[in-house]
Fold this protein.
Amino acid sequence: MATSSLQTSTQQTQSAPFQPKLLLRLGELLIWIFLVGMALVEFAPISWIFATSLRNPSESFNLPPDFWPTSFRWDNYLAVIQSPQINFLLFFWNSLKIALLATLAQLLTCSMAGFSFARLRYPGRDTLFFVFLSSLMVPATVIMIPTFILIRSINLLDSHWALILPATTSAFGVFLLRQAFMGLPSELTDAARIDGANYWRIYWQIALPLVGPALSALGIFTFLAAWNNFLGPVLYLRSWDNYTFPIAIVMLNGYMGSGNRAHVLAAVMISIFPVLLFFLLAQRFVIRGIAVTGLKG
Amino acid sequence: MATVASHSASSSVSAKGWFAQRHTNRVQEIFAGYLFVLPAALSLFVFLVAPILAAFVLVFMRYDVLSPPEYVGLHNLSQLFADARLREIYWNTLRFVVFATLFNNLLGILLAMGVNRTMHAAVKYLLRTALFFPVLTTTASLALVWNFLLTQDRGVINFLLQQIGLDPVPWLSSSSWAMVSVVLFDVWRACGFLMVIYLAGLQAIPESLYEAASIDGANQLQRMRYITLPLLSPTAFFALIVSLIGAAQVFDNVWVLTGGGPADATRLIVLYIYEIGFKRFEMGYAAAVSLTLFLILIGLTLFQFRMSRRWVHYD
């Protein structure tokens, strides 16, 4: 622990005049071994997936394992995409559609409610906000039984709406956006009000553009959560054509995995690519987003 | 008094137009307030508040989805105490939650401190990407991959162990090792997320504090003890709650990696609720078990809030 306190970006050589140089060097070395070791441990399975997905399917079980590609059977990917029984592009589209709709809905409902709680005064507002806040403490899995019964009773089983509708708002998002709107100077909205702008215009044209970081943080989290959702599809989806990516991959493994690991891993890679691309482009936003999500209240 | 009253009355008459304008403004604001909150409130009530209320009713029912629900009194609640498997599964969940939360946060802090050091921007970018990668990838697919990696006979991990002269380990087939595998997988998957949370906390600490401390002659250990740790404590508090509640709800990890087995060795509470509800179709009992989880999580959160007064420093 002591050695890791080197983390500050102040000049370390100046700050430790009386510490033995050798000990410092050793600590430095240990930190780097730890960091690089962890990075390798975290990344090796991913590169194994990639390398194995490019193997000849009949050799995909063979040892020793590859951590970088030794053969390049790109047609494994083609085989997965074009597989006659399993419509992979459809699963991809299903996942994307659900995640995008849930994200858009949450951005809209959470920012509207956040604006209302932060900027408008009306009777019952604080009570309502308290209800939102307390629902932060209720984990989704705890209500999966009654939610299932509800979804079933409104005939949404085996429909994508069963996954989209319960995700149309989140107490977390409302709280996040409320905090963001509270941070805006009130003169801004007051001035617009005096100039005769109605509340929708103030929200849409003045306030919303100023809470971009909070919106992008919420958008990223919602999208990732919906994209990776596993319990929901397991509970609600029944037919192949409606499956989302995560559940389809697991089912695909049961279907062809015992004989053909390369194809299953190619499918896994296909599910990784878009998220990887997104992260490489938006790493800054993801990390800033997590910083924005309050932590500082 | 009289003059004051008459004065204010006359001024209100002269400003009658202004008051009317004020009044319509106020009505508009109230109207807008309700309209803006309506979509979120509607969604919250239908998909969160109503299910919670329904759960409290469902606890007293026998309901198998197909035939109409039937009132059974306290039967489901008394079953909670008679269910030996429930005890075993809560014990599994407890061990999993404690170890996963502990290692995730420990590694998260250490990695954040490491990555936050001064280094070449490209190196930093590569490290962060590699460490954060599993967080971005679907848990279910990763669990599938780890299932391949941990297989006893032809698994990659055992192959590597044998290369360095160790015995192969029954990662998934022995009941004592299976829990280790599940925790290892969770830490591998989630510690990058905790790293980013702690990184955000570290970067929020003003640089000037460290500079001032250096000028005052504080060494690294002292800067760590009196600046980093206290100022990181709100972040740690948040991270602990989030990771604990997340770990208690783990489902896809075990579903794909071990299926809860061997026997019940890695069956965690949410997997059990799923089994009661959707394999045995005892919705009432499943709701009862869910309620116990709910109460435990709320209790833990409140407990952490109480404890936090002792160790969390807000500036």
User: Anything to note?
Assistant: Confidence is low (pLDDT under 50) at residues 1-16 of chain A.
